[in-house]
Every structure is written in C-alpha cells, then in structure tokens.
Design a protein that fits this description.
Layout lengths: L22 H17 L14 E6 L5 H12 L3 E4 L13 H9 L5 E6 L4 H6 L5 E7 L5 H15 L6 E5 L6 H12 L3 E5 L15 E3 L2 H5 L4 E4 L15 H8 L3 H4 L7 E3 L12 H5 L6 H20 L1
Parallel strand pairs: 1-2, 1-3, 3-4, 5-6, 5-8, 6-7, 8-9
Helix pairs in contact: 1-5, 1-11, 2-11, 5-6, 5-11
The structure holds phosphoric acid mono(formamide)ester.
C-alpha cells in the first residue's frame, strides 16, 4: 500500500491550556516557533501567511509582553489585528463577557486572543464563538503561551528539556505561569522543584508531580534552571507577606542562594519583575546568567507559531 505523507495537525481547535495538548501538539508548536526566530531578527519581518485573516485581542487584565507580542505576531504574519480597548468598550457599561464574545463573533474573526481575571474565562468564551480562541492567561489557571515560550528559551540554550532539573520559585499559589510550566516541563521530561513559603504553596501541589521545598537553598540545589515568579498581589485577598524585605531575604533570588544551583544555571522570570523583592536587580540584568530578555524575544516566535497553527 502506498504511504500517505499526512501533515501533522494540531489536535485541538483552541489553545486553552497546556493540559489539553498532546506531546505531538507541543512539538508541533515548538518546531514551528523555531522557524520564526530568525525571521524575527531579519530586516523584512513580514510574511503573508495569515493575509485575509482577522485576529481580535481581548485583554481584560493589564499586559505588556503578551498583548504586544500577540499583536506583533499577527501583524508579522499579515493578519488584520484589532486590539480591543476594554476601558472604552461596552464592558464598562456592564456588557458581560458572553455578550461581548457574541458581538465580536458576529464580525467573523478567525481567532480571538483573550486574557481575563477569571479562571476558565477562555474556556467559556470558546464555547460561544465559531473561531479559535487562544488563552493569554486566565485567572490563576493557565498561561499556555508563556510556558511554551519558556520551553523554547530553555531548548534554545540547552538543546533539550529532558533530564534537566528546574526550580520554579515564589508565588506558586496565584500563578498561572507556574501551573502551565509544571504541566509542560513534566510532559517534556524535566525534574521540577517548586519552592514557596507554605502560604503561597497550593494545597493540590502533591498531585502535580513535583518536588516541594520551603527553603530556597534546598530547592535550588544542583538546578539547571531557576525560574522566578512575580508576586501576584492583585490576586491576594489578604496580606500574605509580613514585609517585602522579609520575602526578599527568604525567597528573593540573590547570588548567595543562586550559588546552590549549578554554576551555569540560567535565570528566568516571566515578567513584570519586582526588582529587589523577587530578584536581585544585578542578577536580573546579568547577561551571562539571565535569559529574561530572550524569553520576551522568543515569545513573539511562539505566538506567531500559535496563530499560524490555530488559524489554519
Ligand atoms: N509574562 C506576562 O504575561 O507578562 P504581561 O503581563 O506583561 O503580559
């Protein structure tokens, strides 16, 4: 029988979370993103593969990196990109997320990128529209493109994720970045340590297949990658920290704590950073250790890959 050479396709209509993806889906996105890294450094950054497609960005929470990189990604692929200004929209007059979704759906977009403060908002939206929905962060649940760009950054530097020891440190409880990274890094074969004070560690952490630590030095021991997290103050209903100074002393990344990781360990942070609270400012800017700027750079490539794959 003749062999058919079927192109590998994404198994899902929407990108709602890492948990929904198969390993083939993840490899498809990461491999596609690798193709865009050099394009994004070239003089002519524009190709026309999404010409005629309409992308709507719907950000109900503030964003610098995710919103701007999704916008650039769509424009570089030739899509018509419309970023809704939420503060001037009918949402301010009380329109619900569902009514907003139905209204936008009537204009026949091909893809909607959504960030929302409620966990599960992107899933709800995906049930109300005909086009693909990409989750740009929903509450404390998932931030799948952040985890994918973090994985691409690690692969770009280390050529693999399998077998690496990776510490995720800080406000695990409120962090969608932590959740998406835990799912993805486990799927890709890393050993994951999570480090947090007990009141910022989720109850369900034992079910997530990670090693847990409350001591930074123990959690960072022999790690290849140290991923710091932002304190999600906007999601804290009461005071979780006695003081910023005390948090920095025990959980801020300093040269002394980092010395427990491998000598060539890489530092990551999804941003925005609280310098001097989550991370020593010199370490954050140390070009021999920090890949924080590279995370932002590769974020555009990952979002181009996601737009291309989920628009097709
Ligand atoms: N990492 C991240 O989601 O950053 P923004 O909030 O700036 O998009």
């Amino acid at each position: 029988m003749a062999k058919t050479n079927k192109a590998i396709k994404i198994s899902k209509k929407h990108l709602l979370g890492i948990q929904d993806l198969s390993i083939n889906d993840i490899n498809l996105i990461l491999n596609e993103a690798k193709n865009f890294i050099s394009l994004n450094k070239s003089k002519n950054k524009k190709i026309d593969i999404l010409r005629g497609k309409t992308q709507i960005n719907l950000f109900f929470e503030p964003s610098t990196r995710t919103q701007s990189s999704f916008e650039l990604a769509g424009k570089r692929l030739g899509a018509d990109v419309m970023s809704m200004n939420i503060t001037n929209s009918a949402i301010k007059k009380g329109e619900t997320l569902i009514d907003t979704a139905m209204t936008l759906n009537a204009m026949h977009p091909d893809i909607i990128v959504v960030r929302h403060q409620d966990s599960g908002a992107s899933n709800l939206l995906s049930q109300k529209v005909n086009c693909a929905v990409l989750n740009a962060g929903d509450g404390r649940r998932e931030h799948p493109t952040q985890a994918l760009l973090d994985a691409l950054t690690i692969i770009n530097r280390r050529n693999k994720i399998q077998g690496l020891k990776i510490a995720i440190c800080g406000d695990i409880l409120h962090s969608r970045v932590a959740r998406s990274n835990i799912y993805l890094l486990n799927m890709l074969g890393a050993e994951v340590n999570v480090v947090a004070p007990s009141n910022l560690m989720p109850n369900e952490i034992d079910r997530l297949g990670v090693n847990t630590f409350s001591d930074m030095k123990e959690g960072l021991k022999d790690c290849d990658i140290v991923m710091m997290l932002r304190l999600q103050n906007e999601r804290m209903e009461s005071s979780f920290l006695s003081s910023n100074r005390e948090y920095y002393e025990y959980y801020g990344l300093t040269p002394d704590k980092l010395s427990n990781a491998k000598d060539d360990a890489l530092i990551m942070h999804p941003g925005p950073m609280n310098r001097g609270i989550e991370i020593d400012t010199k370490l954050a800017d140390d070009i021999n250790k920090s890949v924080i700027k590279e995370q932002v750079e590769l974020g555009v490539a990952v979002r181009m890959a996601c737009l291309k794959i989920f628009c097709e």
